[in-house]
């Protein structure tokens, strides 16, 4: 409830991008129907049947660095907000990193764009 008061929704776009790239399936549950199936979001490479029945969960966890119960972390809250753009910027390394970042922030400043 606290998150929705601040305009957040279900999952942050950056975190969704990370989950997709790591091939981590996500299940979003409805708080008004917690016993229901909710909405399943799973990678294209994983079949719906595998995800829904957990057949490949052990392999998925192992491939993504989760080897024991102690390493399995569960999110406390995952949110999303409309009208946010996530940019992944990579340097070609021909200039020093401080110069590269300075040029990026100069463009953001020029167009009065907020960044986090």
UniProtKB/TrEMBL annotation:
GO CC, any one term: cytosol
Gene Ontology terms: biological process: homoserine biosynthetic process; lysine biosynthetic process via diaminopimelate
Family matches, as SUPFAM superfamilies: Carbamate kinase-like (SSF53633)
Annotated Gene3D superfamilies: 3.30.70.260, Acetylglutamate kinase-like
Coiled coil feature spans: none
Lineage: superkingdom: Eukaryota
GO MF assignments: aspartate kinase activity
Family that this chain belongs to: Belongs to the aspartokinase family.
PANTHER family tied to this protein: ASPARTATE KINASE (PTHR21499), ASPARTOKINASE (PTHR21499:SF59)
Protein name: 7390_t:CDS:1
């Amino acid at each position: 409830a606290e998150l929705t008061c601040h305009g957040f929704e279900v999952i942050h776009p950056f975190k969704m991008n990370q989950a997709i790239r790591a091939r981590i399936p996500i299940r979003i549950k409805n708080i008004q129907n917690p016993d229901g199936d909710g909405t399943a979001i799973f990678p294209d490479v994983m079949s719906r049947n595998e995800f829904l029945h957990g057949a490949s969960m052990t392999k998925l966890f192992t491939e993504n660095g989760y080897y024991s119960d102690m390493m399995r972390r569960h999110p406390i809250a995952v949110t999303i907000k409309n009208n946010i753009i996530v940019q992944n910027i990579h340097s070609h390394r021909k200039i020093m990193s401080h110069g590269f970042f300075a040029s990026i922030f100069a463009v953001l400043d020029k167009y009065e764009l907020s960044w986090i």
